[in-house]
């Protein structure tokens, strides 16, 4: 009996492993072999002219402004150096992902740059057309264009020296704006993903998971989650490609990364900007890496002091600083893997289908017992002597185990992934959660398979006994798997619902055996 159960369980586990392997893509990121080496450790910008002032030279005056957009308006915060001569360079700030209120974003760097003699304008992000599911980077470039036009009208600003400072998601927008407005003077790109959002997401998830120390089997979920169409539709911007705009980039560009930013392809991004701009004859690309700095160019919560110094000097010193040596300076970056195209799932490529399967599977586990309960109540009300139905001996508890196990494993997987995500985003590791949690989920899944093996073997025994009775001249009592509508509904709905959940769990890697 034990051997038979073990053999059936092994066969089921192998079958689920095969199902998981063939229903979706694997994840095999390509290691970086073309590394970018800074030629100097000092990030200071060379080639500065006589008019370059250090951070802290001027007091800063803040003025609230209103930026008129198509169909609406947003507030903005203008910062100007007090006592500085007119004809100053101006910078419009483009937000990364998030809400982006004018009085909360870029406070330190915008203030520092203004104190060095640069007029800065931080507009609030337009949110009526910006959601998690829907955003249009070309339209967003049109919105930021209004801020550029407003800054050019300030008396203290030289309209021919107005440029852009873009961070993270904003670096997908800024090249579009530069392409649309030939009068943009320069571009600062901070923590630029460069590759399409879907590729960047796959890269970031991979990097975060590696830093958290998850088991190798968890990585299979990356292309299956990132590569599918999200449930409910939308997310068209996930495949936005900024490359055509970078290939037409014709203004001096400063590229900045922190070496401790796990979410960005910090070497690949700089190399691609250099190559794409160079294809257009633009070799005025300056790259700076700051040691230990994160996505916001911060170390320990504080903005890297040299960062504001260098950006301010580069902007003020243009055009002299555009091609000044060293072109690449700072700490040595270390990108392990390339951000590349994320494989699309085969049959589970639509998120609605993935969610639908889970809902249907869970619903079936509820429907069967509910039918049994309702049938029993109806018979009791009608005072019918016949029972509502019963399961054959040896089926009840394995069936309960199958239903409870499949649900518990699914819930456990979700809890595990959420817990790992929280650890990863907080740059933390916890072996009990990361390693122990994965083992616990897989053990739950294995226990569910054992329950399924009991059911399969018991059904096989009942079928064999039924054939024996049918073939016997003396006949005999036939024991059916389930009698009555309620019992039959419970048996087969539980089997069907659990099968759907087990296949879904196999898809997400719970049953993989190195296949």
Spatial order of the strands forming the largest sheet: 1-2-4-3-5-6-7-8-11
Rg result? 31 Å
Shape: elongated
| Largest sheet, strands/sense/barrel | 9 strands, mixed
Total strands: 13
CATH architecture of the largest domain: 3-Layer(aba) Sandwich
Number of domains: 2
What portion of residues belong to β-strands?
5-15%
Class derived from helix and strand content: alpha/beta
Report how far apart the termini are. 29 Å
Number of helices: 13
Topology of this structure?
Blueprint: H1 2-22, E1 60-69, E2 72-81, E3 88-94, H2 107-115, E4 119-123, H3 137-152, E5 157-167, H4 170-180, E6 187-190, H5 197-212, H6 221-226, H7 243-246, E7 253-258, H8 266-279, E8 285-290, E9 298-299, E10 302-303, H9 305-317, E11 328-330, H10 351-381, E12 390-391, H11 396-425, H12 431-471, E13 482-483, H13 485-507
Parallel strand pairs: 3-4, 3-5, 5-6, 6-7, 7-8, 8-11
Antiparallel strand pairs: 1-2, 2-4, 9-10, 12-13
Helix pairs in contact: 1-12, 1-13, 3-4, 5-11, 10-13, 11-12, 11-13
Which descriptors would you attach to this protein?
9-stranded mixed β-sheet; 515 residues; 13 strands; two-stranded antiparallel sheet; Rossmann fold; 46% helix; 14% strand; alpha/beta
